[in-house]
Amino acid sequence: MKRRSSILELWILVAAILLTFCTANAETPAQGLPDVSESLTIDTTGLNNEPTFIDWIQEATPMQLIALKGADGGVRLAFNTCQSCKGSPWAWFEYLGDGVLQCQNCMQLFPIETVGTEEALGCSPISILEFTEDEGTVVIPEEVLSEAEPWFKNWKRTGE
Length: 160
What we know:
Elements: H1 2-26, E1 40-43, E2 52-58, E3 61-69, E4 75-82, E5 93-97, E6 100-103, E7 109-111, E8 125-127, E9 132-134, E10 137-140, H2 142-148
Antiparallel strand pairs: 1-10, 2-3, 3-4, 4-8, 5-6, 6-7, 9-10
C-alpha cells in the first residue's frame, strides 16, 4: 500500500509541475506582453519628433502603434500598418531617419510630418484621430484598438 501511495504522490507532483509550466507559458503570449483588450494609456513625456514604436496586444493579436510629437508640439498617433497595404504580412513602417518612414510591403517612402493627421492618405500609417489627452498621457479607447485588430492578423513583424 505504501508503494502505491508513493507512486500516486509522484504522479501528483509531476502533474503539478506540468500544470505550473503550462499556465506560466499561457499567460505570456507574443513577445511576453499581456493579452489585453482595453484602452491603451501612453506616457507622452518622452515623445519627440522621431517615431516611438509601441507594442500592444488586442484580442490576442499583436499590433504596433507609432507615437511622436509634431512640429506644433501636439501628440500624433498611428497604427504601424499601411492604409494601402493593411492586411499584408509585411505592411509596417521602418524609420529610416531624416523624417522618413518606409513601408516594408510596397517600399513607398512617407514623411513623418503627417503621421497621425487627416492628411495622411494612401501609403501611410493609419492615423489614430480618436483619443483623449491629459497632462503627460494619451488614452486610446478600446473600440479604436479593436477596430484595427483585423489589420494585424497576418502581420509578420511579431517576435523581432
